[in-house]
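Dear colleagues,

As part of the handover before I leave the project, I'm documenting each prediction I ran so the next person doesn't have to rerun anything. This entry is a single chain, and its sequence is reproduced below.
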Amino acid sequence: MTANTMIDQLTSERRFQLLIASVTDYAIYMLDPSGNVSSWNPGAQRFKGYLPEEIIGQHFSVFYTDEERRAGVPERALRAAREEGKFEAEGWRVRKDGTRFWASVVIDPVRDEEGKFIGFAKITRDMSDQRAAQQALRDSEERFRLLVQGVSDYAIYMISPEGIVTNWNARRGAHQGLRRERSGRHAFFPVLYRAGPRQRQSRAGTRARTPRGPV
């Protein structure tokens, strides 16, 4: 019997069960209309830490932080999913051992063939690594910004391809006498080369020494 023949002999429900069971990067499970867990896939077990027999029948609010439970966040999520057709969010969730992870969550209402509401489908993905990478990038950018702003012996600034000043450090503003809020709007590169007081004085002296024509 070939693999295709074996698959064809499976019911659509069994094929779906096997599909969900093979997914390990996502927690995919069902909630009953009250929010109690009614199914549990290996992905949910892998990064939430609960065995099926430990979590099935428990209310899904166990995955939320104490602060969010007190604020009624789980209930609002279910209400939004049922009334609006979908709920999506990111936030902290709690594993069985009490540690937190950053999760991307989608909750959809589930209806039977007759359109009767029977519960919710919940898909959760652990986004901790992606969030850590984004935070590391933000921290790096902030450190660089503070470093540049702390430089007082050099004027450091950025110019767009169109010649517009997009940012400069405090020393640049002091040198040029320009306000920081002008950055990115009207401060074009050539304005940084406008004549300073000494240059204007020199030009005025040159004009004064220039011989005049016959009177």
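The beta strands are 26-31, 87-94, 100-111, 117-126, 157-159, 165-168. Residues 49 and 97 are 7 Å apart (CA to CA).

All the best with the project,
I.
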